[in-house]
Hints:
The structure holds two protein chains of two kinds. Chain A has helices at about 30-40, 125-130, 165-170, 170-180, 200-210, 215-220, 220-225, 265-275, 275-295, 350-365, 370-385, 390-395, 430-445; strands spanning about 15, 20, 45-50, 60-65, 65-75, 80-85, 100, 105, 110-115, 120, 145-150, 150-155, 185-190, 195-200, 245-250, 255, 305-310, 315, 325-335, 335-345, 400, 425. By secondary structure, chain A is an alpha+beta fold. In chain A, a hairpin with a 2-residue loop joins strand 19 and strand 20. Mean pLDDT of chain A is about 90; it is low at about 235-240 and about 450-453. Chain B is an alpha+beta fold. A six-stranded mixed β-sheet of chain B has the order 2-1-6-5-4-3. Chain B starts with 5 loop residues before the first helix and ends in a 13-residue tail after the last strand. Chain B has three helices and six strands. The interface between A and B is large, with 46 and 39 residues.
Amino acid sequence: MRVVDGSRDPSNRAVVRPGHVSRGIFSDSTVFERELQRIFGRCWLFLGHEALIPEPGDYLTTYLGADPVIVCRSESGKVRAFLNSCPHRGNRVCLFDVGNTSTFRCSYHGWSFDTNGNLVGVPFIREAYFDGIDREGLGLVPVPRVEVCAGLVFGSWAAEGSTLEQYLGNMAFYLSHFLGAGDYGGLTPVGGRHAYTLRANWKIIAENNVGDHYHTMTTHGSVYRVGIRAKSQGFEGEQSPFGPFEIRLDNGHGIGGIETDDEAYERELRQAEALGGLAVEWVKERYRRFGAAVASRASRPYSYSHATVFPNFSFFGRGAALNGRLLSVLHPRTATETEVWYWFLMERDAPEVVKEYAWTKLGGEGLLASGIFAQDDAENFERVTESTRSPVAREHPFDLSMGLAVEEHWPGQETWKVQGLPGVVGPRFSEHNQRGFYEQWDSMMNRGAGTSE
Amino acid sequence: MKRSTDASYVDLLRFYASEAALLDRRDLVAWLDVFTEEVTYRLYTWERRQVKRAGPGSSENVPVLLLSDDREFLHKRVRRLVETDLAHAERPMSLTRHLITNLRVHEEGDSLSAETDFVVFQSRLQEDRHQFYGSRRDLLVVEDDRIRVSQREVFLDQFILDRTVSVLF
């Protein structure tokens, strides 16, 4: 793999001075090409949730960075991933979004591959390749490392480097705690995959997902104004702006919207009443199981609202009884175009009425394409990306200095109920998660040329 | 299937043309009145699914439900657009043009349904070329000589949507 040495090039730096991030990195195509190698060629990237491909032969297609891949559960039950490209002339060997098969057959010359990526069929092999064919070398290009954490399948194009566990660092705790859902029957998918294109740089979206609560009341103000969400749902005024909320994690990861007291449970109980007895029973039963699961912990994280695993895997949903888990990957198509994909999963043990309620909120008010949150977020992301194209604008870096001077010494932090919660726990309004994201980006883009991760 | 009368077909042509005009004129409160109180309004995209391993019919395009609004939520969508200046996806307002065509009417006993196809152009931000296309399947009722929609299913003929959806169909 050709290594582009741009480490001395200032245009490859995000943080130009503390609390300030360069605009150019959000629309420069040379930076994008370097990202494809330095970030997407090395990091652990999201491939899918195990529950989407439960049976042998099940597969889905997606991207790993910019490369199209097939993610399949082989006949032996192991999850594997391959470049979705015939080694012969490069045709896509799988054109479907989801399915089940025992072989992938190229439509051009008919080469076939099994679910382990082996070349198992070559038409007219005796006549065409009488002088031999390198069968072993002509299987589908495998994603060299595929690992699973809490049901989430990750892959890395780098054959060597940190394990997934090392890469996740303290994000692994939150993945297990909020997405593992082992106490609630595990997660089960509801509906199919959703996708829309935004004329936005992937980082603008990823940084919003990693720690931006500050935008909620402005961007999504209409949701509160017409009562689509009530103030009792935990925003504005009921919690101290200095309460614990956004947590910066290792390696550029971050999570936010953490609630560690019983207020979240009480709120859900009230909401469940409108849904009927089964929903109320579920909220109470789930709380009992939750209590048992966190019995040995000093603080009890009941829910979250948004998170990003560096670089481009985000998850949403409030991780609690009446909400599902929305998993999202931000596929980088160009410097100024991103395909945003979503899968929605629910706790398996939740009753139908709760699953339906959670889904309806997501489609209507939430982050699916016609959701109200999604529409207004998209406006910001596209306009911000546009603002990074022009020469004078590029001379003025973005300001990411919120809370920089008081980082880790936030007012009132000694009163927060966050003992034992991994990560740097900060307040509701802060940009420390975003700063962590860009510091990691800088580190990966500018580590010495020629070294692998 | 009974053949609809010409008058009924023309009534429906008229109905759909004036509904499109309400949307393009942004008369959204009047547009809401096109729907009955019990309406469900659903949007779908599509997924390409391999449904069996080999042979004819092994592949299918399967609808993926994107949203399911009741009348109350549709009302809130409209209120957000007409009563607040916080609906940033439509501030400033997009230009839209709804082209509705290919009307097919089905009458079966008491039930009246209609399918239409559409292209909707949307101009917004730096791009004046957003398009949505697809079909709509409506269940209709006639009350006091008024035609109203009691169920709408909108199928957006895209696997990957061009952008987020702030237009109404």
